[in-house]
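Workshop exercise sheet. Pairs work together: one partner reads the sequence aloud, the other fills in the structure field after running the prediction. Swap roles for the next sheet.
Pair: D.N. / O.F.
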Amino acid sequence: MLGIDNFGAFLLAGILLNITPGADTMYILARSISQGKKAGISSVLGISTGIIFHTLAATFGLSLIIARSALAFSIVKYAGAVYLVYLGVRTLTKGADLHTATLPGNAPSGHKIFWSGVLTNVLNPKVALFFLAFLPQFIDKAHIQSPIPYLVLGLCFVITSVLWFLVIVWCAAAMSAQLKYNVRVKQWLNRISGSVFILLGVKLALTRK
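Structure field:
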């Protein structure tokens, strides 16, 4: 149907991949714990938009540029790594002051968190290579050149991702809500989140094709 081969296996594989902890999961978890449910939801929307971008890139061949060019891979990789480290340092410095870390005016807007999520996902070349290798496995060879099966599979992957990410947000935000009135705990949550971003950036920088 629609050029898709073994859709059930794709759904199962997609769900298993989603629940396996990765960079996106850690990013959303860190946002939700340190900044609450709204920040978590904004990060989910941003990451999901990034996944849609990678689906379109795989569909129309843009990901092949990264797959075939070591320079393009490195440029995207290091840009993403620098951005994650920047987010980490910013989170650490903003959470350093016990008296200002919890003020509403110091929290990033949902709009900024959304775009941070988009950039975090889009600037990860491993995601591009993953979609380029993963989606074709479930597309009938007779339809491998058609964009429709790529788009359908990509959309299904986004839906399962969003559902799982929202579960993470709900659990993490619930824990955060119990601790938000403790300024020192909140400060340490910010430190942990900032450290997670930096570690993700370093890990991405050390990634090889």
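Discussion prompt: The chain is about 75% helix and 0% strand. What would you look at next?
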